[in-house]
Structure formats: structure tokens, C-alpha cells
Amino acid sequence: MAIDNKKEQERDELHRAIWVIADELRGAVDGWNFMNYVLGTMFYRYISENITDCINVGEIEAGNTYFDYAKMDDTEAEEARQKLVEEKRFFILPSELFCNVRAKAKDDENLNETLENVFRHIEESAKGSESESDFAFLFNDFDVNINKLGSTVAKRNEKLCKLLDGFAGMNLGYVKKHYIDAFGDTYEYIMTIYASNAGKSGGEFFTPADVSELRTRLGTVGKTEINKVYDHACGLVT
User: Fold this and answer.
1) What pTM, to 2 d.p., does this model score?
2) Percent of the chain at pLDDT above 70?
3) How many of the other CB atoms lie within 10 Å of CB of 154?
4) Which residues have a Cβ under 8 Å from the Cβ of 114 and sit 6 or more positions away?
5) Which H helix or E strand runs over 35?
6) What gap in Å lies between CA 218 and CA 89, rounded to an integer?
7) CATH code of the domain containing 134
8) For residues 150 and 185, what is the distance between their CA atoms, to the nearest angstrom?
9) Residue 59 host element (H or E)
10) Could you tell me the residue range of the domain that residue 68 belongs to?
11) Considering its fold, how many domains does the chain have in total?
């Protein structure tokens, strides 16, 4: 029961935060495209914090107690690029981390170009690694220059800044320690709100988490081991 309550609490908090961001961008982009901005920004923050945490833990364990990758000089960080790409399958310079780009966003007259370059650099960092195909065109649908965001660069950047601020204030914590699937739940929530408005049927694109959980529980009653899972939308997975 405690876990169920925690899941609902986290889910409600996530939904409220997304609703605030949606309200900030109301009239700028339609719901279907809004999903690209939300998931793109969430993923950008996640991988920024993921690589920072990985590096900081390693340094602290090595005795460098006050080390913070986010405050490291880009030139010094470059020396660890190859090793990090081998380990993490991608690389982000300290200056291009979510927290640092967001901190300067309000004063960055070229925020759209900054984000465009950061996303391109992240995608390019994976080239030659096992994750190259996973990162190729990853942020392709995150259009920082779309006119719907604003008729001028300044207006578009204002929307982008609000988007970054919205996610900076979102309590994502350490994603892997959440009781919910933050990315999956965000996708489902946006689909629930906007699918019909986009002329699409939500049922064609996702199965509600509660339905999936119920089917899983029914299918595993009395079983201690599972070696095959059948998903009506994806097929047989062994």
C-alpha cells in the first residue's frame, strides 16, 4: 500500500509539473508537437545528471571529495571524452549540461542556437560507439526555430527558457529510484490529454499502465519464472 501511495504521489506531482509547462507553451505548439519538447527536455536533463553523477561518484571514491563535473573546465573534461564514451556511450561537456545551459538561458540571446548545438554535439558524441544508432537524430523533432514558438528569435528563446525552467523545477530526483516510469508516464499523460486533439486515437499508440500491470499480474499468477512475454502491440519477445 505504501508503494502504491508513493507511486500516485509521484505521478500526481509529475502531471502537475507537465501541466504548468503546457500552460506556459499554450498557443505556441500543438499537443502532439508538445510531446517532443517535453520528452526531449526531460531526456536532456536526465542524461546530463546521469553522466555528472557517474563522474562525481568516481572522483569522490578516489578521494576528490568536493569534485563537481558541472563546474569543471571544458578543456579538462575533453581529456576524458574517449573513456566516457566507452563507458556511457555518449559525452556532454560541462558547459553543455542541462543545469549550466539553463542557468545562463535568460541572458543567452542565442539560446536557440545554443540548444541546437548542444543537441548536435550529444548526437555526434555517440558516433563510433555501440549506441550510435540510438543517438542518431535523437533530438531531430526538437525544433528550436519553429515559428510557432514565436515570431522572433527573442520570443522563441523566451519559450525555450520557460521550458528549461519548468524542467529544472520538476522533482525528478534520481530517475532510477522512482516508483514510476517517469518517461513512460509522461508519454502516457500527454497522449491522454492531446491524442484526440491531434486527430489520433490514444489506443493506437499506447496501453495505459494500469491495464499493462493488470494483464501482467493475471498472466503470472502461480508462476515463479517467466521466459516469454507477449505484447499485443509488439509481438513475441523471448
Assistant:
1) 0.76
2) 77
3) 11
4) 101, 108
5) helix 31-61
6) 37
7) 1.20.1260.30
8) 29
9) helix 31-61
10) 2-237
11) 1
